[in-house]
Fold Lipoprotein.
Amino acid sequence: MNKKIGFLMVTGMGLLLAGCGNQVDNKATNSSSASSSSLLVAKSNVKVNSDNMSPQEAVSLISTYCGLRYGGNWATMAKEAQKEGLQVNLYPSSKYQLSDGGQGVAYDVTAGGKSQGLVYTVNNDDVNIYQNVKENQKSTKLATISKSEMANYVNQEGQGKLVKDLAAKAQVVDQRSGDSNSSSSTNHSGNDHKYGRVGTIDVPSEMQGTWYSADNDADSTITFEPHSYTYSDGDNSGTIQLYKQDSQFGEDEDNYTNEDVQNATKNWGKVSYLNIDGERWLNVRGWTQSAGDGESYAVKTETVDGKQVKVLVVGGGAGNWVEGIYYQSKDMAQQNADKKFDDLNYQ
């Protein structure tokens, strides 16, 4: 897919595998169950599915798995989170000296917001897990493991209900600022009018989570969070913060051509909602983009092998032509690469 490349050119730039480099987390797939003393809560028959998890569900799955698998601070945090609430703070991975910075975002998992050095990063479909993370100190990852393996292990130990309970109250707090050199943000709502931003955009809940595509012989992923999305498309990856833009900002052409503004907002997306053929689309353009139609996203229901499935449709161009179809699992994406649906608009 080259749709993200187009976005990056316009803007001026632009939870996961069973191995950990040469290290493999074999214990996650060990047939023996955890001892009852290591369980976080009483067992139940509730099961979790790792496909298309929301950010809140993903952090809850990772926290539960790590609490079961590694114990110690991860287990203490998971237990505290049942009372204090689970919160994950997003920072640039450059804030820490991690052995694998993933796609540039460090997820600092906490109970009630106070950091305990429990961090993970994401590489496409894989999660890199850390503990005792501190600024200005090198941190070595415990393991790299996929969400599906985490879900299997959690289900095996009867802890699925804990995942769902934590997710119900989990909070995702983006601590990154618009400037790529800064590690925190003092205005999380984005309504400070800096460079014309007047608030964040709420991504529809049905769109949140990770989606997969294998169109055009290329594996791609896109993960929507409440106010941002992270993409990986071949050699290109990054995170785009989604904001509303003050209309008066765009009326001054100098704002769009100012190099300092372009550099400061290269990871910002200007968002609006479009109504096309009775469908509501989330449209994203580069913050200083003065021409072009950007990319539009909508979740639709299509028939695949006789079953109704949710797909993420990406449209672009003047006719909002289909540029890609994303599915809720990697296997489904590969099995339906370049598949076309009769009700969609292809160029």
In short: The longest strand covers residues 114-123. Residues 3-24, 26-33, 178-188 have pLDDT under 50 and may be disordered. The two ends are 16 Å apart (CA to CA).
